[in-house]
């Protein structure tokens, strides 16, 4: 009985280890190099963006190193039909990592998820 | 034979002076500038909505066929003098007030005025209370009721926040004209003159100094940056 229980626990541990090892697969960026090393970007990108957003909006300081617009422009992929795929679609650059880390980015409730496209004019 | 220059002259595009050069990267907006528009209603046709359409395209404002609540940064208001019957068509957008009522009432500081007088909503901290919509006497603000998709990269907008005309701050910072003024010059009669009211050499400042201009509801004392002629 005890042996069976132990086996069960061991199997569960094994399953957890297998899931943890499945690192997210990210689409490749368009550009050659990011503004900082991957280690720095992984840890610090929220702070970089958060620090800079107030300066841009409230003070009008443009051309900062970290720019969400540039992140999207570089990391959005194109579907076979030429349409840009939103960076927060499943499996895309932002979403694959955030799904893995179980963190929901709220940037894209407001910010564009694809580089600039022509918008269909409003019906009014 | 009509050449390009004549075409430009005929369209009035050449009369619209380009604003000052783009501000350098890393430099904040300063109170040295006071951006504004001078709108000649004599050149503004009642049926013309070129500025409104240009704004929607620039800002990525797709409607839901609900005119009363769809986002609108600029609208055409047709007014009539009951005594004489004279009609005028007036484009009305955020007036970028020097003493903005929206900023006064905002409980979070989301409604804010940049140093150069451009009034914006910081949607990072807007809680969607809509006090600003009630306080603004110009009905210049809209509310995003729906989840938004397909935003323009230069104009983030999202559900549950207030929005309004930004005077195309993203263009001004690059040294370009607001989309409405550019479209009016290119496709209509060039009724909108954009420029720096603080710069005595600018066309807008010279015309404001020389000619009779009005601000709508000037009696409220909010000191808008939008000036009108012919009403
Ligand atoms: S027009 Fe309304 S929204 Fe614009 S600055 Fe004035 S009070 Fe605020």
What attributes does this structure have?
A: 124 residues; mainly alpha; two-stranded antiparallel sheet; 3% strand; B: 231 residues; alpha+beta; Alpha-Beta Plaits; three-stranded mixed β-sheet; 7 helices; 18% strand; binds iron/sulfur cluster
Low-pLDDT segments of chain B? 4-15
Major beta sheet summary of chain B: 3 strands, mixed
Shape call of chain A? globular
Examine the coordinates and then state which fold CATH places here, giving the name of the CATH topology of chain B.
Alpha-Beta Plaits
Helix-strand sequence of chain B: HEHEEHEEHEEHHEHE
How far the N terminus sits from the C terminus of chain A, by CA atoms, comes to 72 Å
Q: What is the oligomer described by this structure?
A: heterodimer
Spatial order of strands in the largest sheet of chain B:
8-1-9
**Structure annotation, total helices of chain B:** 7
Overall number of structural domains of chain B? 1
Structural class of chain B: alpha+beta
Which shape of chain B, going by the Cα principal axes? Answer: globular
Domain Doubled CXXCH motif (chain A): 69-100
Organism (chain A): Paramagnetospirillum magneticum (strain ATCC 700264 / AMB-1) (Magnetospirillum magneticum)
Protein name (chain A): Hdr-like menaquinol oxidoreductase cytochrome c subunit
Keywords (chain A): Signal
């Amino acid at each position: 009985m005890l042996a069976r229980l132990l086996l069960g626990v061991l199997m569960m541990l094994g399953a957890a280890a297998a899931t943890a090892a499945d690192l997210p697969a990210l689409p490749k960026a368009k550009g050659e190099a990011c503004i900082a090393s991957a280690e720095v970007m992984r840890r610090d990108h929220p702070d970089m963006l958060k620090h800079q957003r107030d300066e841009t909006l409230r003070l009008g300081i443009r051309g900062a190193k970290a720019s969400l617009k540039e992140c999207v422009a570089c990391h959005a992929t194109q579907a076979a039909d030429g349409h840009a795929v939103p960076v927060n679609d499943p499996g895309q650059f932002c979403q694959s990592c955030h799904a893995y880390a179980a963190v929901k980015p709220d940037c894209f409730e407001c910010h564009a998820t694809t580089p600039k496209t022509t918008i269909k004019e409003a019906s009014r | 034979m009509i050449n390009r220059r004549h075409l430009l002259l005929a369209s009035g595009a050449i009369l619209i002076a380009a604003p000052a050069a783009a501000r350098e990267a890393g430099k904040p907006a300063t109170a040295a500038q006071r951006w504004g528009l001078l709108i000649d209603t004599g050149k503004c046709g009642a049926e013309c909505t070129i500025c409104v359409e240009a704004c929607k395209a620039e800002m990525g404002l797709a409607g839901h066929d609900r005119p009363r609540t769809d986002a609108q940064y600029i609208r055409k208001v047709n007014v009539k003098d009951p005594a004489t019957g004279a009609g005028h068509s007036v484009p009305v957008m955020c007036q970028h007030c020097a003493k903005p009522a929206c900023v006064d009432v905002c409980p979070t500081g989301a409604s804010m005025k940049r140093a150069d007088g451009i009034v914006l909503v910081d949607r990072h901290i807007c809680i969607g209370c809509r006090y600003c919509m009630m306080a603004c006497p110009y009905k210049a603000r809209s509310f995003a009721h729906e989840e938004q998709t397909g935003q323009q990269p230069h104009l983030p907008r999202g559900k549950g926040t207030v929005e309004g005309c930004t005077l195309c701050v993203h263009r001004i910072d690059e040294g370009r004209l607001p989309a409405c003024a550019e479209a009016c010059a290119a496709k209509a009669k060039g009724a909108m003159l954009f420029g720096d009211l603080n710069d005595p050499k600018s066309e807008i400042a010279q015309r404001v100094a020389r000619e009779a201009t009005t601000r709508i509801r000037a009696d409220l004392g909010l000191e808008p940056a939008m000036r009108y002629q012919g009403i």
